[in-house]
Amino acid sequence: MWWCAWSSYDEEFKDQLNKLGKISKDGVRDLVKCPPKAWCRAYFDTQCKNMMVDNNFIESFNAWILEARVKPIIKMLEDIRVQVMRLLGKNEKQLRTWVTDFSPECMKLYINFRAIAHGCKVEFNRDWSYEMSDGEDRHTVNLEQKKCTCRIWDLSGIPCPHAIKALTHKKVDSIT
Predict the structure, then answer these.
(1) Which end is more exposed in the chain, N or C (fewer Cβ atoms within 10 Å of the end residue's Cβ)?
(2) How far is 8 from 51, CA to CA, in rounded Å?
(3) Do the record's keywords include Zinc-finger (predicted)?
(4) What is the pTM assigned to this prediction?
């Protein structure tokens, strides 16, 4: 089921749903009871650059404010404000240890994408647009708009393997 949730574009989602259907038709029926736009990356809004498909963030936040939640509203909000300030200070301290302008997690994902990009085949389309072959899949990359039909670049803000390959072909630094 997770492969369905992690799908970043419609065709991939349908392929994963078909694979799941071969294993469990009941699983597919139960899965689509809830609209995919609520749980599948293929249908997420790309305004917020977050590829998470679970609710661990909300669970963590609720656990984080557990002590404050039982207090009167003003005191609760004040406690949460102080916790947020402490967290921001801690994060700023950690940020100063970074060796690039990007988080280590982003760099790890970028490096993995760069390795995958070697397997992509470039088809030049026009000045800033490319068609890419990735195995059986084909994707269109628009470098000006920073978009790819795989939607990973849109969802994460990190160039997908197709975009990295197109940027490399264009001789543009893919990290900036």
Answers:
(1) C
(2) 9
(3) yes
(4) 0.70
